[in-house]
Design goal:
Two copies of one chain form a homodimer.
Chain A: E1 2-4, H1 7-19, E2 24-29, H2 35-47, E3 50-55, H3 75-85, E4 90-92, H4 96-99, E5 106-110, H5 119-122, H6 126-141, E6 145-149, H7 153-165, E7 171-175, H8 195-201, H9 203-216, H10 222-235, E8 239-247, E9 261-269, E10 272-280
Parallel strand pairs in A: 1-4, 2-3, 2-6, 3-4, 6-7
Antiparallel strand pairs in A: 8-9, 9-10
């Protein structure tokens, strides 16, 4: 596994692989890797000749009062894990100044309702930071396929839209959320949780599963389903950031469930904000 | 000369050429071609294996009260001219819906003083439209080199910044402004001018040349030089949009001329807005 730190080295690596006709699969991460990330690596290796992973804690996707400073950085452990998979060909691990030097001024945005709902409401500017950095990474890595986790569902929808609208020559593959035994979605932020909080946090996926069952059993009123989720979360003394049911395809509001929907939740357990979602297909 | 209308066809064309190791030179235009555009084609052919020209009257770079509807569209003549050069390998001529379909929502911006000075002040949103469409075209054509005319000086600076900040793998080549015999910069908008207006318009470059001479003769006070330009233009009964002298490298304001500067002008002759500039190197 090559570890490259500069854009110039990456350009050379990518050019060489393109010339040889090797397809590139790309897994962008912020490090503190878990089995969710590794499942993306596995998927990439199955579909592409070479797998490129990036680790970059992207400052411009954090709000002023968010956890950028304390976001876990365990680079040595990350490198060990990636090497252990024997499936990663290249790790891109740039310093902040390499990707965002003094005077950096460009931005890439998706200016529609996709970025104003769900996490877009709770985290203003977050998705602008995501689309800007991913646009850069796509230009640097020029991957045939980009692998993203479903846990960040809104992010997958926004990045797909960015890629389509700006004609990046990259296909997006969304992989299923990987979960702990009790159903909690794996997240780098789970390490913030105390043992009790960790136990409490499992309620989110249980509430989402319950909601999924309600819909499968014929409940089509969004409001009723949302209220049930809220009731269940409040019982567990969890603070709710948002619970919403939206059309999965374009995150449009719905009052009745007729199309494929995403049930998306963000909760705060102790001081830690966690998100999760389930996608419910139409029958 | 191939004429391609869709992104899918362009993708195929570009992929084929990349595979063969052909370098691509790209000249984006809005059509109504003149010798300025053709000089870009010549430069591209000298430096690259294949030359791609695009013609697209980009609606998102026009303001609501600007001349999008009446902007000259003379596609047959353009095609004839390009064929005549025998230097263009591929003409990309998409319909509006191909590049900007219903629901298009992405944007690429350079969010600093570069886009707030000069034309950025007179034409709010203009450069956002330019950077967004050029980002798309760069992703579609993936050229080794992009050829731009110096007449749109601010555009060249902003696009260079976008390309650098977003890591596009494309080099920018700025070619000298091509002029009519009396010095008027060639522009697709010159055809709006009546014979008298056409004659009057020549004063802009004469005023810029005069300013250049003043600086070369030792005048370093921006205000004095700008006032002289304004005096000369007012004598000719020309309406001034702006006259400014800025550091050429980053369009920063200066009061004394010590670095390379650009003297940039925008005037309105009759109903037609015209721009021009000269770059004055430091001695």
């Amino acid at each position: 596994m090559k570890i490259l730190k500069t854009i110039a080295e990456m350009n050379e690596y990518v050019r060489k692989n393109k010339k040889r006709g090797h397809s590139l699969g790309f897994v962008p991460t912020m490090g503190c890797l878990h089995d969710g990330h590794l499942s993306l690596v596995n998927a990439a290796k199955e579909e592409c000749a070479k797998v490129v992973v990036s680790i970059f804690v992207n400052p411009i996707q954090f709000g002023a009062n968010e956890d950028f400073d304390k976001y876990p950085r365990v680079y040595k452990k990350d490198i060990r894990q990636l090497k252990g998979t024997k499936k990663v060909d290249c790790l891109f691990m740039p310093e902040k100044e390499e990707l965002l030097p003094e005077g950096f001024a460009a931005a890439v945005t998706v200016d529609n309702e996709l970025q104003s709902v769900l996490c877009g409401q709770s985290r203003p500017g977050h998705f602008k930071g995501v689309t800007t950095i991913v646009a850069k990474l796509l230009n640097i890595v020029r991957p045939e396929k980009l692998f993203l986790g479903q846990k960040d569902f809104q992010q997958t929808v926004i990045l797909k839209k960015m890629i389509k609208d700006l004609d990046f020559d990259t296909q997006v593959k969304v992989c299923a959320t990987v979960r702990e035994k009790d159903g909690l979605a794996m997240s780098s932020r789970n390490i913030y949780l105390s043992p009790e909080e960790r136990e409490t946090a499992a309620v989110m996926y249980k509430a989402l599963q319950m909601a999924e069952s309600m819909i499968e059993l014929g409940e089509h009123e969004v409001e009723k389903v949302v209220n049930e989720i809220k009731r269940k979360l409040k019982e567990a003394n969890v603070k709710i950031d948002y619970i919403d049911i939206l059309r999965a395809e374009n995150l449009a509001e719905v009052s009745r469930i007729t199309d494929e929907v995403v049930i998306a939740a963000a909760i705060i357990v102790g001081k830690t904000r966690l998100i999760d979602n389930v996608v419910v297909p139409v029958k």
